[in-house]
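Quick illustration, no need to memorize.
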Amino acid sequence: MTTTHGQRAADDLAAVREQWGDLLAAIAEPPRRADWMPYERKGFLDQLAADDRHDDQALDEATIGRLPLTIREHPAPANLRALDAALAVERDVFDMCDAVAERVQLPARDRHGRWSLGADPSDPRLWHVPTYRDAGPATLTSAGSRAFGLHWAAVWLGGRALDDADRDLFASTPAPLVDQVADVARAARLRVEGALGRTARTLTLDGACPFCHAGLITVHNGGGDPRAAVATCSTGPSCPAPVDAERGRRAWRGPALVGLWVALQAASEEQRAAA
């Protein structure tokens, strides 16, 4: 099956969204190689509780499904590469959203007779570009939809790339514009994954499989795509692990990787206790 440029753009933007919280948390942490296991960063939880999330204006503007996960102030960032990547990705994706909105979002007059991009300016499906008092960043009067953060921008842009739009609100996205979105999305994904150290790699874990106690566990970390990560046991289908076999080997994917990690930890603790 051939993947269209629109689908590729949507997939790359989804990967950016899924890793955005980790990237923001990484700004406050020293650089390190990503583990093969899915993990939860304390910094990500801190981000959700950050003071800037409770800014009155942000709460007034936010709506369900578009709560912002934004770059916060870091007086002394521990990971400059992550900070630079986050700022660059946010800028490029926001600029692309502005450009797409100006091309495909249908203009109309609101009830006060003012022209706007979209039939109903309050419609949450619309993208609102920043407004300026005069010209230049120093005269910004409204951040528009950028106030909702990168996550919402990626969702909105992915929809335009797939052209899954209501024709009352959006014109069809031209193919050359979809190509531009795909290029921006791919560059954003590579920046995020590069900053997080999530290059695709394969490694063999120390110790035997905790289920058959004979085979070795080989992990393909899937690069930046957690859906592509898989671990297999070299014993083959005779391994009693409670997962399906793929190509003649027991394979752990998705949530099953957590079960594998728990079993490996338990086996390691048993070995230490017996020593």
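The radius of gyration is 23 Å.
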